[in-house]
Amino acid sequence: MANVAQLIRRQSSRELLRVPLDRLELRELQHRLLPTPSDQANAGPALYGTTNAAFVEDGGAPSSSSPSIIQQQHLNLGSSGTSNTASSTTRNRLTSLDRIDEKEEHINGVTGGTAGIITSSDDNKGVDVEGAAIVGQTPSGADPSSGDERENWDSKLSFLLATIGYAVGLGNVWRFPYLAQKNGGGAFLIPYAIMLAVEGLPIVFLELAIGQRLRKGAIGVWAQISPYLGGIGIASTVVSFNVALYYNTIIAWCLYYLFQSFQYPLPWSECPKEYFENGSYAINMECKQSSPTQYFWYRETLDISPDINTPQSFNWKITLCLFIAWLMAYLCMAKGIASSGKVVYITATFPYIVLIIFFVRGMTLHGMADGLTHLFTPKWEKLADPVVWLEAGTQIFFSLGLAFGGLIAFSSYNPVSNHCYRDAILVSLTNFFTSMFAAVVIFSVIGFKARMTYENCLETRNQTLVRAVLQELPVCDLQQELDNTASGTGLAFIICTEAVNQFPLAPLWSVLFFLMLLTLGIDSQFGTLEGVITSIVDLKIFPRVRKEILTATLCGFCCVLSIIFTHGAGNYIFTLFDDFSGNVPLLIIAFFECIAVSYFYGLDRFANDIELMTGSRPGIYWMICWKYLSPLTMLIIVIASFAKIIVEGSGYLAWVAEAGTTRHLDWPPWAQVLIAVLVLVSALWIPGIAIARMFGCQPLADEPPAWFPADELREFRKLTDVHHQSSTMEKLLFCIHDDGTEGLCFPTSSSAQSKANSP
């Protein structure tokens, strides 16, 4: 029985087995399926077609051991006339009634008292076998994915909603609008679309395809391509862990604002007042120096310290919200995609409902046209600024969630015959148009806020004109109000909340707005955590620990660590993580992903696999992007990012309570060390694993070949050519040699020798 399990897995590519079998089941099935020599003369053709081959040990003849009690009692089909019925159902599926328990006592109970375990079905559609679902050869045209033993999505819609929810996140709402108006308005769409075409779409396609093909998470995928490349997956997992650590803090802030929205008036609508015994009051000076929304954000929510070196007090309110956020993440992911796949029906669709509601409201606001004009008026001179192209490429990259491992993990649960090319196009374009739509919504609201502030300024100026000195008059400038658009937390928790204050029924709009941010954030958190959990499960680091326990442990550990973001200096540490834990490492990871597929796995081989999975071979454009354009673009962005840090320096905005404003401070030495650690702790895994393998160490176990029913896929997709014949252009562009190998664009010794030996 030594090779039985391997033989069965091999047969599973022909849809012979749907569920894994333990050794006791294999023993019983061997007795059931292999007739004794005395039976072979009268048994006719093999009962289950080619299934018997799975039980031939060491490539020899079937074992001649005596049949089991079950076989003696229930497989004497000749006398009952069911052999003809069974042979007529050779190519039909057989379904499982109940799995045989691993305990021998249960098997004895079955053999001793159970009758009719195998019976001929009345409608001649199959034979029921207790213990395992044995399936005949895949009928022509049947979906070959049914032989896959990996967990699958409940439906294609669940996968699409989960992937779109993962890709469409907070950055689409609070970063893209800011970048667009800052970097040329309508002109910014040109570099943004170009970067989407050469960087975003190709890598989304690559990650979805490689995950679907190799059926593993990020670590397993790259380790299977080459043991030397396992560090790519570990780097992705480390980055995903670091990002998930601080990303849930945003969800905690959204929860806090959501809870505060259920009151009237909104707590950030006016400055707090200190009342005295004589009935008089004084307005809080910090709030008076800034604004009610700024005061509520910096003092009431964050209780922020003057700099990163002085943590000050512990913020129990945000800590409680953080605990709720991690509890939500666990409850939604406890059973993997079986649970998160259902939650996404709400979390992936609700933000679009709220955006549509805000869009309708925004189109009726006074000042809407000012905001949209400011957003889309092209400033063509900005196209000559390399920073604009750098920020377009960076935004595309992080908006789609590339190199985190989330897309690979999600696609690994897809059927092997899924059309991943269509998915890549759909997800990428949905992300792009969501960013555009969100920008329209946000700037219609910002235009309203700027117009109201401008008109209030004019009114105040006219009222004080008689008694004021000319130099003391307030400056009223609509353009300046529009330019004062913030990004990130400043846009969500200060600018937008100030605009919502001026809406009728402001608490209702506030609840909708923060529910939208909450669902946008939790969706992205699903994908980020799934990249970590799937990699740990595939590595079998804790093989005896159930996935629910593993998820609970991970969420609990992250919850404890993320408390560092809840004290007075927590917002500054959050900024440090946000700026450095993902930016450069993710670009490096994606660069090596392209290198791994194009130069190690083989670009021609990868294209052949995609053709089998989707029915069509990827075009020349995609292959050029994977091998040349995408890695070159990411390399340029990495170099430019380092150059920008060196030239401009790096720091953070600290809140000055006395002045009611922020000031720029440089990172202290210990923070600079932490920045270096965040970058290196992820990126160094890539060369580290390769070097360890070179010196004989084996940090990662060698991955077994992935299940991939190539013949069935070829039949399912009705493909006639077994091997793709590379065109002359493909050979020139991708360095494909005449013998089918890939490499440098000159003949290798093997190919040169084969040419010399050819007639």
Structural overview:
It is a single chain. This protein is mainly α and 759 residues long. It folds into three domains: 4-137, no CATH class; 147-275 and 283-688, Amino acid/polyamine transporter I, CATH 1.20.1740; 725-759, no CATH class. The protein has 34 helices and six strands. The protein has helices at 4-12, 23-33, 37-43, 69-74, 77-80, 83-88, 104-113, 156-167, 170-174, 176-182, 189-214, 218-225, 230-260, 285-289, 292-301, 316-333, 337-347, 350-362, 368-376, 386-399, 406-412, 420-464, 478-483, 489-501, 506-539, 547-561, 570-580, 583-614, 620-648, 669-683, 685-694, 710-716, 728-734, 749-757, and strands at 119-120, 127-128, 273-275, 281-283, 651-656, 661-666. The chain has a two-stranded antiparallel sheet with strand order 1-2. A two-stranded antiparallel sheet has the order 3-4. A hairpin with a 5-residue loop joins strand 3 and strand 4 (281-283). Helix 10 (176-182) packs across helix 22 (420-464), helix 11 runs antiparallel to helix 22 and helix 28 packs antiparallel against helix 29. The longest helix has 45 residues, at 420-464. It is globular and about 90 Å long. The relative contact order is 0.13.
State the gist of this model:
By secondary structure, the chain is an all-alpha fold. It has 34 helices and 6 strands.
